[in-house]
């Protein structure tokens, strides 16, 4: 849904790296090299970014009206 701010395993800050990561990967760059450039070294943090599925636009249709 929404990218977590911190890694679930080690607590490292990863939320600020999502936008540059997804932008560069969608432009055709290798995800591994992008993560290296962003300074994401731990495999637990890399997993958080690589395996995230952004489904917030699909879920928002099911919210209750206020």
What does this structure look like?
Part of the RNA polymerase complex. Keywords: Cytoplasm, DNA-directed RNA polymerase, Metal-binding, Nucleotidyltransferase, Transcription, Transferase, Zinc. DNA-dependent RNA polymerase (RNAP) catalyzes the transcription of DNA into RNA using the four ribonucleoside triphosphates as substrates. The structure is a single chain. By secondary structure, this protein is mainly alpha-helical. The chain has helices at 18-26, 31-38, 43-50, 56-59. Helix 1 (18-26) packs antiparallel against helix 2 (31-38). It is globular.
Which terms would index this structure?
single chain, 66 residues, mainly alpha, Arc Repressor Mutant, subunit A, 4 helices, 44% helix, 0% strand, globular
Short characterization:
With 66 residues, the chain is mainly alpha-helical. The chain has helices at 18-26, 31-38, 43-50, 56-59.
Give the helices and strands, then pairings.
Blueprint: H1 18-26, H2 31-38, H3 43-50, H4 56-59
Helix pairs in contact: 1-2
Overall number of domains: 1
Quickly give the structural class. mainly alpha
Beta-strand residue fraction? under 5%
CATH topology: Arc Repressor Mutant, subunit A
Indicate the CATH class.
Mainly Alpha
Overall mean pLDDT: 90
Order of helices and strands: HHHH
Radius of gyration: 14 Å
Name of the CATH architecture: Orthogonal Bundle
Shape: globular
Low-pLDDT ranges: none
Alpha-carbon distance between the two ends: 21 Å
Largest sheet: none
**Helical element count?**
4
> Fraction of residues in helices?
40-55%
